[in-house]
């Protein structure tokens, strides 16, 4: 199939990307392992909506990501689960792009560049929240 834009690719491949997101969450384990199949699907769909919006706009809502990470931490979730999930999704995304866009190397390169950039920003934000927690713990002692 020939894709005429990033949006076209993401729209056509939505179901496959959702499968990749679910697989990434399963692979990450941790708190994701406690989800039922329905909960995992619902969570993956929500996460994918955010990821695809970021890929389309090449923007990360840093304050919202920080707030979400802090909420997850307060709820007792290991933020490393999020990092593992993000890395697994990025790998799966790149495999899909390589397979689907063999003849459209410029579009493939742009999609991979965007996902790597956003993945790096995501991990940086999560790591920042983890560092804030460590600093707070050390200053309270």
Report on the structure:
The protein is 81% helix and 0% strand. The longest helix is centred in the C-terminal third of the chain and has 36 residues, at 105-140. With 141 residues, it is mainly alpha-helical. Helix 5 (79-100) runs antiparallel to helix 6. The mean pLDDT is 92. It has six helices and no strands.
Please give the structural blueprint.
Elements: H1 6-12, H2 14-28, H3 37-57, H4 62-74, H5 79-100, H6 105-140
Helix pairs in contact: 2-3, 2-5, 4-6, 5-6
Short description:
With 141 residues, the chain is an all-alpha fold. The protein is built from six helices and no strands.
Kindly list the characteristics that best describe this protein.
single chain, 0% strand, 141 residues
Strand content: under 5%
Number of strands: 0
Class inferred from helices and paired strands: mainly alpha
The helix tally amounts to: 6
Q: Which stretches are low in confidence, meaning pLDDT under 50 for 5 or more residues running?
A: none
Largest sheet: none
Tell me the overall shape. globular
Order of helices and strands: HHHHHH
State the helical fraction.
over 70%
How far is it from the N-terminal to the C-terminal residue, by CA?
60 Å
Mean pLDDT: 92
Radius of gyration: 16 Å
